[in-house]
Amino acid sequence: MGDESKKLLALLNGIARRTYYGEEDMTDDFLLSQIYPDSPKEESSGLITKCSGLLKNVLWRIDLKAQARNMEQMNESSAIMEFQINSPENKSEVVRFEMDETKLTEVLTQMKEIETEINNYCQ
Q1: What is the pLDDT along the chain (123 residues), one digit of tens a residue?
Q2: How far is CA 105 from CA 44, 78, 91, 101, 109, in A?
Q3: Residue among 50, 21, 47, 22 nearest 35 (CA)
């Protein structure tokens, strides 16, 4: 993953931590100083404004397969993720996807890496 992608993910994670977990120390100034220290404030604060209004809600659940073509697939679990996002036209859209256990483990590993990067920026 490129450096700019990691920075954007760190920014989104910081905004999510502030919005959904009430971590008030994740202020705009703090995020900008830690993630984009060399960028002009006008440029990077616009990015925060744009990113802050994107994610409206996150829902998830775990499903078990009750029917399958063969017995090995019965009772396999999968995670269903749903993101409610605001489009540029200010309409609410839903992005829904499903992950099996292997893919979920990969995503959680990547999220842990993102959290580690954010923590590194915050020190």
Answers
A1: 567 777 877 888 888 888 878 888 888 888 888 888 888 877 777 777 777 777 777 788 888 777 667 776 667 788 888 888 877 677 788 888 888 888 888 888 888 887 787 777 666
A2: 32, 11, 32, 6, 6
A3: 47
Bridge-based pairing state of the strands 55-64 and 92-100: unpaired
The backbone torsions φ and ψ at residue 88, rounded to the nearest 5 degrees and listed phi first, read -55, -25
CA 58, 63, 69, 71 torsion: positive or negative?
positive
End-to-end CA distance of the chain: 22
Q: Can you say whether the dihedral through the CA atoms of 64, 67, 69, 72 is positive or negative? A: positive
**pTM attached to this predicted model:** 0.52
Q: Do 51 and 12 contact (CB within 8 A), yes or no? A: yes
